[in-house]
Design goal:
- The protein is of the alpha/beta class.
- It has 3 domains: about 120 residues, no CATH class; about 50 residues; about 190 residues, P-loop containing nucleotide triphosphate hydrolases (Rossmann fold), CATH 3.40.50.
- It is built from 12 helices and 14 strands.
- β7 and β8 form a beta hairpin.
- The N terminus is likely disordered.
């Protein structure tokens, strides 16, 4: 048997040891030139192998061909002239009849005596006889293309070998590349199959799911379910009702928040959305000019007009850059005419609608801030309201501030603001804010009549009145905490 790497080929008898070599390449066309170059044109093919190698995890492999050959001995020309001049014509010839190979032919034993040649006739005198002709060496029969031979047998012609291997390589299909797939899926282990048949649980058969008709999607407008914010709506509405906001306005604020504020900030919550909606509903007064302004404070009896004027005058004289003065409007003993006192310009009462009174108010307004405290008004006193409206129209102040007590109910507040509408009020000062938590009544009334809640009057810790400016956001936060 032969092996790779030039190992010896053991034989029996008197057959010599033959060296074989293994040649390896991608295709037969790559191996044949190596065999001819290293072992000559009469090299003999002993064995041939094919396979795949390389790659990663079974991918990207490439084919290889391995041929084991040994040097050949002297060869003879076995081509028939009738088959043509090209060795490729031998491929079209019919295959030769099967013959015994040298390994299959019986060999005589060394002990067996070779048959004695026949004795030549005795020569006679005077006669010349030529020496007997030597018998021609026995020619072995033609061998198939691939066979195992032993030294001493003639080899296959190199040209025929090359043509046959080339034709065989063209006719043999190349192995298909491996499919690009991962390892085959491993079936899950059925532990019930491992149990004996007597202890196996009964087979569970799952009913097929019912066939559902295909759902036809129609373009529908997405609406928020009515009850999705029911609990939050009830809590916010109860909080608004506790501070004096009516049921009607509470519903308007919540509906507006659900429609416009919640979609833009869904995580903020309904209460935060209602606060922002309420801050947008509260009117805002335009800013006062920095050079000088006039503020007229009006209101009913006990509303806190005088306290509001005093608190504003003290705040401006303490921290403002403008000089502040306050004029008081009083009625004469008959109650028919308005008189005015403006310190230090007018010490004695003068008619408010007169030239001197108006000239003093305009001078104080031009110099800084002029505050005007008006007499108490009743919603039922139409004549006094008309008289004060004429004076205010002559003065043209930047602010007509209504002192609105937070202790009034919704009906009384609405009646007071409705009666004072001819005076041209544009803002509100919520007074007595420290006496009740029903600030929602005054805020709702101001929103209904288009008045801006601008100031809030309440008692401080020391007992005096303290006035502060109202910001719509802070006011909404105070109403709905």
């Amino acid at each position: 048997m032969s092996s790779r790497g030039g190992e010896a080929l053991p034989t029996t008898g008197d057959v010599a040891t033959v060296q074989t070599r293994v040649f390896r390449g991608r295709t037969i066309d790559d191996v044949i030139p190596q065999i001819q170059q290293e072992m000559g044109a009469d090299a003999i093919i002993v064995r041939r192998r094919e396979g795949l190698s390389g790659g990663i995890l079974g991918f990207f492999q490439h084919p290889w061909v391995e041929i084991e050959a040994m040097p050949g001995g002297p060869s003879i020309d076995l081509f028939d002239e009738d088959l043509g001049d090209s060795p490729l014509d031998l491929l079209d010839a019919p295959p030769p009849p099967p013959v015994q190979t040298p390994l299959e032919r019986p060999r005589p034993s060394p002990q067996a005596a070779a048959p004695a040649p026949p004795a030549p006739p005795a020569p006679t005198a005077g006669t010349y006889r030529p020496p007997p002709a030597r018998p021609a060496p026995e020619q072995p029969p033609e061998q198939p293309p691939f066979y195992r031979r032993i030294p001493g047998d003639p080899g296959m012609p190199s040209a025929y070998l090359t043509a046959h291997l080339a034709a065989l390589a063209r006719s043999r299909p190349r192995p298909a590349p491996p499919a690009l797939s991962m390892r085959p899926p491993v079936a899950p282990i059925d532990f019930d199959e491992l149990l004996p048949r007597t202890t196996r649980p009964p087979a569970r058969r799952l009913a097929p799911p019912p066939l559902r008709p295909p759902v036809q999607s129609a373009p529908e407008r997405r609406t928020v379910p009515p009850g999705s914010h029911s609990r939050a709506r009830a809590g916010v509405e109860a909080a608004l009702r506790r501070v004096g906001v009516s049921e009607e306005m509470s519903a308007e604020l919540i509906d507006g928040a659900l429609a416009h504020a919640v979609p833009l900030a869904p995580r903020a919550g309904l209460a935060s959305a209602v606060r922002s909606t309420l801050a947008q509903r509260i009117p805002v007064a335009p800013p006062l000019p920095a050079q000088g302004a006039a503020i007229v404070v009006i209101g009913a009896g006990g509303a806190g007009k005088t306290a509001c004027c005093a608190a504003l005058l003290g705040a401006y004289r303490t921290s403002s850059t403008l000089p502040a003065s306050c004029a008081s409007l009083l009625r004469d003993p008959t109650g028919e005419e308005l008189h005015m006192i403006l310190t230090p310009q007018v010490v004695k009462p003068v008619p408010a609608a007169g030239a001197r009174g108006l000239r003093a108010l305009r001078k104080a307004r031009k110099a800084g801030l002029a505050l005007v405290d008006t007499p108490s008004l009743s919603p039922a006193d139409k004549s006094h309201i008309r008289e004060l409206a004429a004076l205010i129209a002559e003065l043209k102040p930047e602010r007509v501030l209504v002192a609105l007590p937070a202790t009034l109910g919704a009906t009384a507040a609405a009646q007071l603001l409705g009666a004072l509408r001819p005076l041209g009020a544009n803002s509100v000062a919520v007074t007595h804010a420290d006496e009740t938590d029903q600030l929602g009544v005054a805020v709702e009334a101001a929103c209904r009549f288009g008045l801006a809640p601008e100031y809030m009057l309440e008692r401080g810790k020391s007992g005096g009145w303290r006035v502060s400016r109202i910001d719509p956001s802070e006011l909404a936060e105070r109403l709905l905490t």
